[in-house]
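To whoever is on call:

I kicked off a structure prediction for a single chain this morning and the downstream step that reads the tokens threw a length-mismatch warning. I double-checked the sequence; it's 380 residues and nothing unusual in it as far as I can see. Pasting both halves so you can look.
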Amino acid sequence: MKRFLSFLTALAICCCAFASQSLGLHTVVIDAGHGGKDPGGVSPDKKNFEKNFALDIARKLASKISEECPDVNVILTRDNDTYLTLNQRAEIANNANADLFISVHINSVLSRAANGYSVHVLGESRQENRDLYAYNLEVCKRENSVICLEDGYKTSTNGFDPNNPESYIFMTMMQSAYLEQSLEFAQIILKEIKAGGPFTTNHGVSQDPFYVLWKTSMPAVLVELGFISNSDDLWALQKEANRDAIANCLLSAFKTYKKRYDASMSIGSSPTPQTAPSGQPHPAAPSDRKETAVQQTSSPSQGGVVLYGVQIFAVSNKLPEGDSRLLGYRPEIIKAGNLFKYVIGISADMQEAKSSFLKIKEKYPDSYLVRISGGSLERL
């Protein structure tokens, strides 16, 4: 009996150790944009290519994270001048069960005056009076156009056409589960590049329909690090010291995000509220299962009653009534920070909500069950 009890004790200790190790941010995928037959942006003198700058920065970042965060598995989608489809890049991250996806790019536009850096997450534009399909559409078309290099791309991407604005509609619903975490990481990146990067113009965080972000099943950002079409930015990118400085900025952002992420995933921990920069959305602690204080636009939970439902997506701009993305549903809308969370299939019976969830998930693959109680929304 004593030997049996000792075995149980050892087993419990091992299980606890495994559980503690499984919590937190342990895998990051760094995606160097373009590559191989896809050069990405090209400098005006035709001598410099986005794919090379992106690969060098991605490599530097991977090396720095591996050195300073030995508990993190760092995966590069490409480590040389290889062509990968956008689906392949996302599949690498999804198959690795990554906790974070960082896609590294250099911007390029026809105007040589445009300069600076920006960070993008999947979704609708946060700019008032800016339509999703007008704001940054040209940048999105450029980054998504690599799809056209694939043989039979319309079959492999379910008919997605990077030049057709209607192809972007469904994307606005697909990253709701990770939008808050992606936004937080994006804000941290902006702060770090502003403090230590070689660029002068900060274009902020934008929510845009990039295909590679849509296909990843984790918090994900796409960073545009300077304009290869601008002489000043190009000059900065040509210097290895500056590319190293950019990688250091991204490393600092990663370490800050990881610290918050790991704290939020600790059993019994209470994440410390973070202060957002002026005029920027308040970042949420990066945990899908934390409770989020909400300001309700409607009142699905009254008098302490606990209700259950299915969150189908979260967007930064409230959708008009009867919007096609609602597929005929009339959801309860819960405002949390700068996000509007759309919840349908609400019931006081958890089993009934689960039954509704099975049907709803067929239409909204990234939807999930939530509990609504006392002015808070909690993912189940």
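Update from on-call: the warning came from a stale cache, not from the record. Cleared it. Sanity check on the structure: The radius of gyration is 22 Å.
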